[in-house]
Amino acid sequence: MEALLEPVFVFKLNPSFTSKNPYTVHFPNLPKIPSKPLVVATCCAGTPSPSPLLPQDSDQNPLQLSPDRTRDRRKVARIAWEKLVRWSRSWRSKAKTDVLERTKKVVVLGGGSFGTAMAAHVANRKAQMEVSMLVRDPAVCRSINENHFNYKYFPEHKLPENVTATSDAKTALLGADYCLHAVPVQFSTSFLEGIAEHVDPGLPFISLSKGLELNTLRMMSQIIPQALKNPRQPFIALSGPSFALELMNKLPTAMVVASKDKKLAHAVQQLLSCSHLRISTSRDVTGVEIAGALKNVLAIAAGIVEGMNLGNNSMAALVAQGCSEIRWLATKMGGKPATITGLSGTGDIVLTCFVNLSRNKRVGVRLGSGEKLEDILSSMNQVLVAEGVSTAGAVIALAQKYNVKMPVLTAVARIMDSELTPKKAVLELMSLPQVEEV
C-alpha cells in the first residue's frame, strides 16, 4: 500500500485521439488518492512534454561538487599531505649525516660538463671538504684554480672555493674518500690503466659515465675493476634524468645510486642528497647501467623522427617501442623490469628523447634533416661525441648474444653504419608484422 501513496501519473489524452479498441478498461476498487500534489504529464500529439524522470535544465554544473562534498575532499587531501610531511620530517630526523661529516676529500675524474657540475654540487655540501678535479687540459686547470670557472663548459657559473684542479693523478687521488668517475666510456679503460697505481683498493668509484665499450660490450661496473686490476674495487652507478646545466643551477633533480653493496649505496646517498637533489637507492646495477646506455641510442632515434618532421604520434610510438626493447634486453641480462620504469629508465629516456639539450638527440635531428654522419661527427669535439653513436653497435651485439629482437635500436645501428637511410628505416619499421604487444 505504501507504493500507492507516492505521486500518481495521470495521462490525459488529446480529445481528437480516437482508439479503435472496442473494449472499455475498468479499474475497480482503487483506493482513494490522498490529497498530494499530482504530477501530470499530457500526451498530446504534437505537444511534447518534459519527462518527469529527467532533471530539468538548470545553470548548475553537474560536475560541480556541493559545498559539503568540496569540504570533505579538501579535508582528505589535507590529511594525506600532513601525514606525508610528518613522515618526511621523521625520516630526515633519523637520517644519518655521519658520512658527510667524516668525508674530507672527493676526487672527480674528468673535467667535462657533468663532472664539473657534480664537483660543484659535492663541494657545496660541505665547505671544509676538498674536491679535487683531475683534468688533462692545462687551460681548464688554470681556469678552475685561478678564476674558479671551468671556462670551457660553465664560463658563467662560479665554482665553490673548495674546488681545485690538477693534472697530476697522484695528487688528485691522495687521501680521497670517494671518487666520481666522469670520463667517457670509450676512453675509460686507457685512462684508468694509466692511473691504477695511484688508486687505493678500497676507494669507492661512483660512475657517472653511461654507455657500453664498443668492442668488449662491457659496462662501467666491469670496466673499472678490470682496468684497475682489482675485482673488489667498490662500485656505484649514478644515473637518472639530469642535465649538468640544471644541476649547476640547483634546480630540483632526482637520481638513483645502484650498488650490490647496500650499505655503500646508502653512504653515497647521504653524501650526495640535498634539498634540490633526491637520491634513491637500488641494488640493480645491471638494470641501471643498461638503461643509461641504451637510452642514448633511443635518443638518436627520437632525434631522427623530429628531424624528419614525422609528428608527435610517431615520436610517442617510437619512444614506447624503444622503452620495451630496453626492458627486454635488460631483463634478459638480469635486470629488473621495475628499474626500467624508474628514474634511470623511463625518467632518463623521457629527458633525453624529448629535450634538445641532449647531444644524442641533436645528432639524430641532424641525421633526420639529411646531414651525413661523417659531417656531423667532424663538427663535434672528439670527447663530446654523443655516446649513443658508439654504443649503437654494441647494443645490437648484446641483443644477438641474448637473442632479443630490437627493431628500433637495430635500425639506429644500421644508420650509424651508413647501411640504411633514415627514410628507408622508417618504411621498414612500419612494415614489420603487426603482432601482440609484449
TrEMBL record:
It is found in: Plastid, Chloroplast. Keywords: Chloroplast, Lipid biosynthesis, Lipid metabolism, NAD, Oxidoreductase, Phospholipid biosynthesis, Phospholipid metabolism, Plastid, Transit peptide. Residues 284-426 form the Glycerol-3-phosphate dehydrogenase NAD-dependent C-terminal domain. GO terms for cellular component: chloroplast; cytosol. GO terms for molecular function: glycerol-3-phosphate dehydrogenase (NAD+) activity; NAD binding. Its main location: plastid. Pathway: Membrane lipid metabolism; glycerophospholipid metabolism; Lipid metabolism; Phospholipid metabolism. Residues 105-264 form the Glycerol-3-phosphate dehydrogenase NAD-dependent N-terminal domain. GO terms for biological process: carbohydrate metabolic process; glycerol-3-phosphate catabolic process; phospholipid biosynthetic process. It comes from the Eukaryota. It catalyses: sn-glycerol 3-phosphate + NAD(+) = dihydroxyacetone phosphate + NADH + H(+). This is Glycerol-3-phosphate dehydrogenase [NAD(+)]. It comes from Gossypium tomentosum.
